[in-house]
Design brief:
By secondary structure, the protein is of the alpha/beta class. It contains 13 helices and twelve strands. It has a twelve-stranded mixed beta sheet, with helices on both faces. The longest helix has 18 residues. The radius of gyration is 20 Å and the shape is elongated.
């Protein structure tokens, strides 16, 4: 199997730091081979400061697996990075964007088996003229460029304890009701069920759908959206043959006994999904993009400018993202949640 393509992310953030830490633990953790897309001179200088035992080797993707044992393989993008830890500059966005584009191109060409992305700083990208809302949407755009087929990307946060999908993502809470539709819930649920079967080898995925309102609307007493939007969507998914229940009260959906009865939960908005998984698996949850023609995972955290370049960044989430990406790409064993093992 080809190596993983790991993007640089925001160079002034902790992406380089956690990459160094992951590579240093490669043998102990049995990490799959990966290569980092970035500026090798910048990375070598950063490694000298915080990870002097990490040698950098400039490679092409085909050489990465062989080099991985003795050095961190880096594919040179030809873009000089001048940003300092914690201080992004005008080189940050071009380097981050180029790494994403190259990673997708490598996977589409068969040179890499999956894309793993280090964290980016959206405000830095926006200031450069970046037009997409975030990583996920940009990956979907690139997938469409390569395949000519429109895709609907779905963000799933995965951990052994919980897998959860926000149906609406980065919206102000006041805008959620206006953007939440039965069609959106149905399309999201179909993609989740499909990729749980195809990528995670769960033969009959079990989904639950959280209600939008407290107590799932209390039969309309606390809002009619669960009756008019969520319940019809659940009925349509069930008519598709998907094992799905809902709308269910979100406040009783995430304790251990409840989690034993489903493989993934669909939440109606960002915090309804992310608060439980970050409570249960803050250090090791993985962001997985479903609905793409390739595997993409990412650490479930940001750039952490305040500790970038100090060597204090925790690599656990990146390590989990690398391991999960390789396993999903290989499709060789079931990846049901740990409670099913």
């Amino acid at each position: 199997m080809p190596p993983l393509a790991l993007t640089l992310g925001e160079p002034a953030g902790i992406g380089p730091d956690i990459t160094f830490a992951a590579w240093r633990n490669r043998a102990e953790l049995g990490l799959p081979p990966f290569y980092l897309l970035g500026d090798p001179r910048y990375l070598a200088h950063r490694a000298e400061r915080i990870a002097p035992g990490v040698p950098i080797k400039v490679v092409e993707p085909a050489e990465a697996a062989a080099a991985f044992r003795n050095a961190l393989p880096v594919v040179d993008l030809g873009i000089e990075v001048t940003a300092q830890p914690g201080r992004p500059d005008r080189s940050s966005a071009p380097a981050a964007i180029a790494a994403i584009r190259r990673a997708v191109a490598d996977v589409q060409a068969g040179a890499a088996c999956a894309v793993v992305t280090n964290p980016v700083a959206k405000n830095v990208l926006y200031r450069s003229g970046f037009a997409e809302p975030g990583h996920t949407e940009y990956l979907a755009k690139l997938a469409e460029e390569h395949t000519g087929v429109a895709v609907h990307p779905v963000m799933m946060l995965w951990s052994p304890e919980l897998a959860v999908v926000p149906v609406t993502i980065h919206l102000p809470l006041k805008d959620v009701v206006g953007r939440l539709t039965a069609d959106l819930i149905v399309e999201t649920g179909r993609i989740v069920a499909h990729d749980l079967r195809r990528r995670f080898a769960i033969a009959q995925p079990r989904l639950v759908v959280a209600g939008l309102n407290p107590h799932a609307g209390e039969e309309g007493a606390l809002g009619e959206e669960d009756i008019s939007i969520v319940a019809p969507a659940v009925a349509r998914l069930r008519a598709d043959g998907i094992d799905v229940r809902g709308p269910l009260p979100a406040d009783t959906l995430f304790h251990a006994a409840a989690r034993a009865n489903y493989d993934a939960a669909l939440a109606m908005y960002h915090d309804q999904a992310l608060i439980p998984i970050k409570t249960l698996a803050f250090d090791h949850a993985v962001n997985v993009t479903l609905g793409l023609p390739f595997v993409r995972t990412s650490p479930d955290h940001g750039t952490a400018f305040d500790i970038a370049g100090t060597g204090r960044a925790d690599p656990q989430s990146l390590i989990a993202a690398l391991i999960l990406a390789a396993r999903l790409a290989a499709q060789t064993e079931p990846l049901a949640l740990a409670r099913h093992a």
